[in-house]
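Lab manual, section 2.4: Encoding a predicted structure.

Procedure: take the sequence of the chain (185 residues), apply the prediction step described in section 2.3, and record the output as structure tokens. A sample record is shown.
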Amino acid sequence: MTGVRKGLAKVEVALRWDPSPAGTPANDLDLVAAVYGAADLHGTPVHLVHFGSRSPDGTITLNRDSHTGQGFGFDEVMTLELNRMGAELRRVVVGVVIQHADGSPAGPGESGRKTFADIGGTGIRIREGHTDLAQGDFASVAGSTAATIAEFSRDASGAWSLDSADLRGSDADPEEFTRLMGGRR
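Recorded output:
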């Protein structure tokens, strides 16, 4: 993925993938965002946003959620209203996790475990308004079950930037991934 930009206000992160072949378990990918405060930029998130949740202040919402990848265009869409976040919130890391066919976490070595290589037609797009900031797929982390896809941070003046749109793969289950995704690179 490519693209870095400063002075961001409202950003959309979109994820797409193809449905699984007929007769096989559905492909279920989920967007997740971890928000970090100034006191602990790489440790424990202040809050997590994922399917079935939103940020307590309403600045991060999951606008579209798919359990199958069926539909046109992007299957999951998350909106981050960076300009509305409290001043103490300084970093947001966005990732993608693959769920088991039954919705439970897919951990290493478990049956039913899928990697990005098992899922066709993947794509990621990060945009502000009509401007694409980054786009790509999961080819560079094909053997992983989860990946960080973007990192946003706020500078001393209060301006938000997309610092990284590089994929970083992980084999952690979704719960463990949310603890690890914001660690130092």
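Check your result against the sample. The first strand starts at residue 6 and ends at 8.
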